[in-house]
Amino acid sequence: MSKADRQKWDERYASGAYGQRPYPSSFLSERIQGPQSGRALDVACGAGRNAIYLASCGYSVDAIDISPIGLARAQHSAEDAGVAVNWICADLLGEDGPCAASVDDLLPVPHSDYDLIVIFRFVAPRLLERLPEYLAQGGHFIVEEHLHTTAEVVGPSSQRFRMAPGALSQMLVPLQIVHNFEGEVVEPDGKVAALAQVVARA
User: Fold this and answer.
1) N or C: which end of the chain has fewer CB within 10 A?
2) Which pLDDT tens digit goes with each residue over 120-144?
3) What string of H, E and C letters represents the secondary structure of 132-170?
4) Virtual torsion, Cα 8, 118, 79, 6, nearest 10 deg
């Protein structure tokens, strides 16, 4: 990413973007319900809705995003909810090119340490392929991405920010896939999204 990308997301969060979605992803809340224990990592957490939910279930949560304004909103929401989350501001993509930072440099968290890792609607293939290394043995990985489609659905208009059919599960081959879905989903607001959803276990 770049300074321009951080500024773009800061402007979105400052304008109140995603404020109408304080609830966690239904794909997450249907699979994780409290009480829980252990450590969780929310990658590209945005305004923190999933991280806050996981903390409310009992997890000790690290949550990473590029936008300090988004994280400030998340911190305020966490305080309102009465939960604690370790918010980390970091660029998860880095700059492209031959001198691009390694994934280990971009993720300021320890390997083999998380009982749960979640990443929602953030397309970063290089990161996705390495995240399983950050799971503890028996830990779970929950991923949801926008899916390539020609249908009229919500989400990014560019296919660059969508996953090709079958691509997500292929990236997670080292893990045991316990749930794999691709297709259209009706969102809580009634809109339709084309999604790839995977639950995998280390």
Assistant:
1) N
2) 999 888 888 889 999 999 999 999 9
3) HHHEEEEEEEEEEEEECCCCCCECCCCHHHCECCCHHHH
4) -10
Q: What are 159-168's pLDDT values in tens digits?
A: 888 999 999 9
* Closest alpha carbon to 92 in 107, 71, 110: 107
Answer yes or no: are the C-beta atoms of 69 and 45 closer than 8 Å.
Answer: no
Can you give the pTM of this predicted structure? 0.88
The domain made up of 3-14+23-201 is a member of CATH 3.40.50.150: yes
The tokens 């009229």 sit on which residue?
Answer: 152
Tokens for 191?
A: 């809109």
Pairing of strands 192-201, 135-146: antiparallel
d(CA 164, CA 162): 7
DSSP 195: E
d(CA 99, CA 120) in angstroms, rounded, equals 27
- Asked whether the CA dihedral 22, 27, 29, 32 is positive or negative, the reply is negative
Give the angle 19-153-198 at the CA atoms, nearest 5°: 80
